[in-house]
Amino acid sequence: MSRLAYIGIAIAAIFILAAVFAPWIATYDVALQNLGPGMRYASPSAEHWFGTDGLGRDVFSRVVFGARISLEVGISVVVVSALFGTIIGAIAGFYGGFVDKFLSGYVFNVFLAFPGLLLAIALVAFLGAGRGKLIAALCVIGWVGYARVMRGQVLKVREYDYVLAARALGAGNLRILFTHILPNAIQPLIVQASLGMAGAVLSEASLSFLGLGIPPPAPSWGTMIEEARQFFATYPHVLFFPGGAIALTVLAFNFIGDGLREYLDPKQRAR
Amino acid sequence: MLLVIWTVVSLVTFLLDIVPGGPAAAVLGESATQEQIEDFNKRYGLDRPAFFFSYDGDKGLIWNGIDNRYADYWIGVLHGDLGKSFKTDRPVRDMIFERYPATIELAVAAMLVAIGIALPLGVLSGARKNSVIDNFASVFALLGISLPTFVIGPFLVYFFAVRLGWFSPTGSYYPEDIVLPAVTLGAALSAILTRMIRSSVIEELGEDYVRTARAKGVSERKVLFKHVLKNGLIPVVTILGLQLGVLLAGAIITERIFNWQGLGLLLLEDGINKRDYRLVQGCVLVISVTYIVANALTDLVYRKLDPRIRLS
Fold this sequence. Notes:
The structure holds two protein chains of two kinds. Chain A is mostly helical. Chain A has helices spanning 3-20, 22-25, 59-95, 97-113, 116-127, 131-157, 161-168, 173-209, 221-229, 236-264, 266-270. Chain A is elongated and about 80 Å long. In chain B, strand 1 (53-56) and strand 2 form a beta hairpin. At the A-B interface, helix 4, helix 5, helix 8, helix 9 and helix 10 of A face helix 1, helix 6, helix 7, helix 10 and helix 11 of B.
């Protein structure tokens, strides 16, 4: 695998460890306010590694706990939507005909007709905010991406000679699907999953930035950026650290996806 | 397409029914009396049944006839009427179409920025894999994808508006004020497109027909532009169509950062924050329908580009 993929795995591992062991890593209580003199928007120091925010809360501790929120939402969304999407996409591509017409011509289009973020915003607007509702909304939209990729791959692969040969040898539908089509379709799915993870982390932060995601005082990175935005020109550190955390997390999953794609695809590796 | 639009309108209609405690209580607040709530429901037709039939525990299924909110909304939509705002009493349609051009302007500008950056960068880096320009494109693409709009936006404002004073920090006072929002909104798309075009070009360059073309002595430039690009752009067109929806939704964040008076800001500030559910319904509907129409157009282009794809 490429060096960048290992860097990605390393960064992701750091964030995952931070998320898992957040209570032991964080140096302060995330909700602890300190409005004393010089404690609001304090610059990074030995005491507060990433400085403090507008309420005198420790930014480092909040970024560490923010990792927990981001990864929890991201992993939930990717696992649920990938499983569901792959199954539906395989069914649509493999059976074709009326099934495909209904699934890709109607169901996919209905779900794709709502841009992901908009549906999440609409659901949250009518339903109210909350972590479970947020994850559900992102899954409802997320699965279609996997289904589309899977369907496209199945459509492409099922016409190949070796699949026809397998069929001529008497292989059943399920056998062809699992031993011939799925291994060929897995690479774009992995890339989709890496992008999906990055996308879910971004979506959670975006909704929280708009005040529609995880409600404060929970230290979501998006909420932290929204709170810091107005004072960015004077106190850049308050926006810089959560912004950097989002960028690094997303970057890490992109590196992993890219590295895996090149590793798994002998065509790309050979050149 | 019509079927999809029908489904979207239906879903939007039912959004009102998932408001916990009902819209009247949410709009009027906790201090509202029963009388005020009834008055509100009557004024906006919310006292009528939700659908053609309803379910009652004792009586079972009840047929409500045409006299229901679902039919009301449909009749309104077909007459170009999206109902009246719960807060201002103004027609939602007028409120939306005052803001609509600003958002379309922003989305189109962002898409132009994205294509303008991604097409040359993607093709060059794909054709010259592992070269300097390829590495530059990779770094650019990764930054563009990883950095969220709400991080890029404040940085751009800080450098180009506050420090250099080239543009207004927020709002739109001069024609050039669209540049920062368009770049902010288009950055992620340009990054995605660059990656797509690059990997597409690399994949197509490995196909047999390219080897055949080269073996026949076709020049490298012709191979790239005539053969590879024509095939390689097919997945890109799909992504572009899908991304328009992301742009329209992403415009909400960009509009918030730059105080750009578009549909997104209307949805967020006047709709969601003030609990004007009728306005939220209208905004969601208009954004979705815009996206559906754009998607249908993408499909047409897709078919045109690749006759091999049997869409049926």
